[in-house]
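Appendix B, record 7
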Amino acid sequence: MGTMDGLFRNGGADPGGERDQVEAGRAAAIPTRVAVVHDWLPQVGGAEKVLAQILRVFPSADVFTLLDFLSGRDREFLSRTRVKTSWVQNLPFARTRYRLYLPLMPLAVEAFDLSSYPLVISSSYAVAKGVITGPNQLHLSYCHSPVRYAWDMQEQYLIQSRRHRGLSGLVARLILHYIRLWDMRTPNGVDSFAANSRFVARRIWKVYRRRSRVIYPPVPRGPSVSRMPVPPARKFYVSVGRLVPYKRVDLIVEAFRRMPGRSLKIIGAGPQSDFLKQKCPPNVEFLGRQPQHVVDACLCEARAFVFAAEEDFGIAPVEAQAAGTPVIVYGKGGAQESVIDGLTGVLFSSQTPEAIVDAVERAEKIEFSPEALRANADRFSEERFRKEIQSWVGEEWALFEAGSSAFEKGGADADLFESEMAGVGGER
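Structure tokens (predicted):
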């Protein structure tokens, strides 16, 4: 490939006559029997918002997931969906310590029997794309990321979880080595990848040598957020997200310790909650997990949203922009695609408290337009996501049907289709 743009299957040249095959089979109806495979459902985050929109496109689909502990309003999007869990659901402490079972998860996901589903869609950031499918099934994977803690972010995860030294470090590295070996098997069972950002598309290419269609995640813009009036005075900053090491909330807390005249509210829960609260200065308030209407209100009332993680895409910063609130975010990963520096927020270049303090001071000098912020967020709407998912699945199903028909006929048709797929170079 001559340029990096060749990695992204969202337009441009059509190698090997692939588009002709799609057009020829476009009339083929997408099957109603669909399996959607999602890694796990302990709580609602960005990946679950993607799952909810996929289920709006395929409302009769069955969901397969390693474990499901959603309750109350969190599982409203699953109210009419049949959810099938794995045996991991019944293991001790699975509700709170499920990550300890990572070495068993490849076995669990491979145990799902999907043989009766002609179309399988995986929503994967860990093991979901490793489900086993046959030659008469189409497997499409919406990839939030390859298993990042097993690949390019391994050292960061080990250091932040304090498992980078000694015997525990050796055991952790052996487990992640095994996960990498297994993960290299999984793309062979995927017929087509979609990535949630150009950043993740590059990671998919680096790890699997597979091209991806970029489909940005959906960001809600309901009346609870985008139609709220802009408050006359924004007095505090806000950060929203799971309190896990890679989110680097510790850096945000330390930055605001150095800015005692500015207040910060942190919304979210996770394994780092107690650790972060112990080092919390008086001007930082932890609100824990909050219902969506409280999150929406805080986003609308905040001076700015602060985010220090290197994210694959990062839905939360876009939700803040949809609320008309500028964002102060680490300028690597998906943030480079969703935030316009100086117009919808401020990007900082290093994960340090000093960089965050400097970014806050820069943001204070900029007069942000709520209209510009909301217009930028509109690029990532739920309607746009559903339309692009439908288009991707429809095109891939038509191509799959055309290929199946060619091989069933045999002879020249099969030879022609096989040569065209060789022209694509195995990059689907």
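Remarks on this record: DSSP finds 16 helices and 13 strands in the chain. Residues 382-409 form the longest helix (28 residues).
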